[in-house]
Each structure stands twice: as C-alpha cells, then as structure tokens.
Please model this.
Amino acid sequence: MVTPPVVLTIAGSDSGGGAGIQADLKTFAALGVFGTSVITAITAQNTLGVTAVHPVPADVVAAQLDAVLGDLPVVAVKVGMISDPAVAKVIAERAGDLPNLVVDPVLVATAGSRLGEAGVVGLLLPYARVVTPNRHEAGALLGRRVETVDEMVSAAAELAALGPRAVVVTGSELALDVLHVDGGSTLLRGEPVATGNNHGSGCTFSSAIAVRLAAGDAVPSAVAAAKDYVNRGLRGGASWRLGAGPGPLDHFGWSA
Ligand SMILES: Nc1ncnc2c1ncn2[C@@H]1O[C@H](COP(=O)(O)OP(=O)(O)OP(=O)(O)O)[C@@H](O)[C@H]1O
Ligand SMILES: Cc1ncc(CO)c(N)n1
Model:
C-alpha cells in the first residue's frame, strides 16, 4: 500500500464512542487516511449524556502535539472540544505547523452538558481554514440567536470577518447548511434523514472536511463531500439501536 495521508484530531474523548476523538478516528479510517490524536479532555459519556469531564493539562496537550508534529507528516488538522484557554493558546502558538485547520466549535453536548466556552473557541477562529458551528454555536460565538436561514447567512459572514477563511453554519436536522467562502455565501441543501441517531454528526462532518482538504480539495468540494459522508452515516445508522439515547452514525457503511 502507498503511504496514506496523515490527519490529526485535537479533541475530547467520548467514552461512548459516538462523538469526539472516537468519531474523528472512525471517520479518518473510513475515508482512508491515517489518523493521529491529541486528547484535550476525557469525558465520561454515553448516548444519554455526560457524567464527568476531566480536562487534560495544557502542558500535556502541548507534549502530545509536539510528539505528533515532531514525527509524522500531518497534512490536515481538526480541532473539536477545547475548554481551557491555556489549551487554545498552545494550539494558537503552533498554528503555523497546523495545515488545513478545521475548527468545530464544541459548546454543548446533544444531551445538554456544557463542554466548552464560546470565548475560548473564539481564540482559534483567526487560525482556521474552515469553522463549522451549528446554529446554536454560531449564535453563542456572536452573542445572539441564530435560527432562520437568513440569520445563518448573516452569521456566517460575520464569523468570517473574525478571521477564518471559510465558515459553514450547519442546520442539523434541516440538512441545510450555509457556506461562506471568498466573500460569498452558498446554501447547501441535503436530503433530511429522519433519525434520532445523530450523536457525533458535527464531529464527523468537520473530520471529513479535514480529510478532503488533506487530499487537496478546495473548501466547497471538501464541504460537499463531507456532507455526503455524514448523510450516508445518518441513513446507515437510522434504524440501529446503540444506547438508549441519540445513537451514533454508521461510519463504515455496515448497514449499506
Ligand atoms: N437529520 C439530518 N439529515 C440530514 N443531514 C443532517 C441531519 N442532521 C445533521 N445533518 C447534517 O450533518 C452535518 C453536521 O451538522 P450538525 O448541525 O448536525 O452538527 P452539530 O450540531 O455540530 O453536531 P453535534 O451534535 O455533533 O454537535 C451538516 O451538514 C448537517 O446539515
Ligand atoms: C468529547 C465530545 N466532543 C464533541 C461532542 C459533540 O458532539 C461530544 N458530545 N463529546
């Protein structure tokens, strides 16, 4: 086999396996890249919720980053859960070594637990090639409500003005996302999937974007491919039962 591209996720661990680092590494494996990981926090979590969060100290995050970047040829990076400003600073200081940086603002888990702060995630926006908030996260970053499609369009443009080269405000169950890139906005319409199993959809989406950027795609085609991959994962997992709450996606096409 030829040497695969190396992609890095900097994120929190979800013990339930559906979101966070676990969703990211599954996405990387499914899409044919070699996944590496820097863990920012350990969460005790399942499909019903989060029962404990243990942040990893900033110096240990820095050591993980240096270990990966000092040895492996990372070509794209996804950032998920960051709850500590000192960890955001460690990442920002190494931004020059983090190509194709996709930042997924993780603020609240599906079941309602707080996992991050808008003020901390905001520190990373200037370094991002792509930022992928859902409507709620976009609203938290801007300090107002973002609900309608018009509000998603203006939020994407305002977030782009904070420094990232592109912004995707995702519409969750609407399957309608707004992409802002190169000064213009595009509506991305997907096929809505009727499913309760959406735990980790945002993690999967941002990781899949990083994979396509690693392959050299421009942002619009990377985002379109990621949206398609998430849609297949949601459809595949729509009728399985993994846990009593919102379950994970089918990352590997097992249900196809
Ligand atoms: N039920 C659905 N049917 C079709 N597409 C969906 C559905 N739910 C989410 N998506 C798509 O999945 C992608 C991820 O966006 P989503 O808004 O779910 O992320 P998120 O809310 O950040 O996820 P998370 O719950 O992991 O935080 C987007 O392209 C969105 O349109
Ligand atoms: C660790 C972690 N990261 C991200 C999310 C968002 O889905 C989650 N629930 N848990």
